[in-house]
């Protein structure tokens, strides 16, 4: 039985495709990519998979053979707004878990506000409730930072602030968190 063995996926420049969420593939996806000759194996687990005709150590780190360019403009999604705002309420400044954050329109839609990068911020539930359907001036709340359209690089850098729960020791040379790896 193969244990939980995700594979870190690096671009052809040996940088992770993304940090948050970390670019991971299941061991099955990684093995398939190896057989299709789409990746190079950089590091391996001790676990081996076998069939009658071959055996292969499970890859722990792979690099794509063809470079995937970053998009110029990141997609406007709820997750990317939270990532841009570093998972902090833009009214009180408190860092929250993603499931504890909401999406708030600075200028409410009922007052003509648009749903875009410059009018939407992360908010905790209590600040969102306090602001409700009011303008900033009426609500008495102030923004901690003016919202901006982020670059892919900015989102990637912000993603580095959120290391995942699982970090394998073979990944350390390819990740740049200020987190000590814990060996089991």
Question: How do the helices and strands line up, and which of them pair or pack?
Answer:
Elements: E1 7-10, E2 24-25, H1 27-35, E3 39-50, E4 55-64, H2 78-84, E5 101-105, E6 120-124, H3 125-131, H4 136-139, H5 152-159
Parallel strand pairs: 1-4
Antiparallel strand pairs: 1-2, 3-4, 5-6
Observed structural traits:
two-stranded antiparallel ribbon; disordered C terminus; alpha+beta; four-stranded mixed beta sheet; 21% strand; DNA Binding (I), subunit A; 184 residues; elongated; 5 helices
Describe this structure in words.
The chain has a 4-stranded mixed beta sheet with strand order 2-1-4-3. The radius of gyration is 21 Å and the shape is elongated. It is 19% helix and 21% strand. Mean pLDDT is 89; it is low at 178-184. The longest helix has 9 residues, at 27-35. The protein is α+β, with helices and mostly antiparallel strands and 184 residues long. The protein folds into 2 domains: 7-70 and 164-174, no CATH class; 78-150, DNA Binding (I), subunit A (Orthogonal Bundle), CATH 1.10.30.50. The two termini are 19 Å apart.
Largest sheet: 4 strands, mixed
User: From N to C, what is the helix and strand string?
Assistant: EEHEEHEEHHH
Q: Give the tally of structural domains.
A: 2
Q: Which percent range describes the beta-strand content?
A: 15-25%
State the low-pLDDT regions, or none.
178-184
Number of strands: 6
- Gap between N and C termini: 19 Å
pLDDT averaged over residues = 89
**Helicity level, as a percent range?**
10-25%
C-alpha-based Rg, rounded: 21 Å
Structure classification: alpha+beta
* Oligomeric form: single chain
Strand order of the largest sheet: 2-1-4-3
How many helices does DSSP assign? 5
Which overall shape is indicated by the principal axes computed on the Cα atoms?
elongated
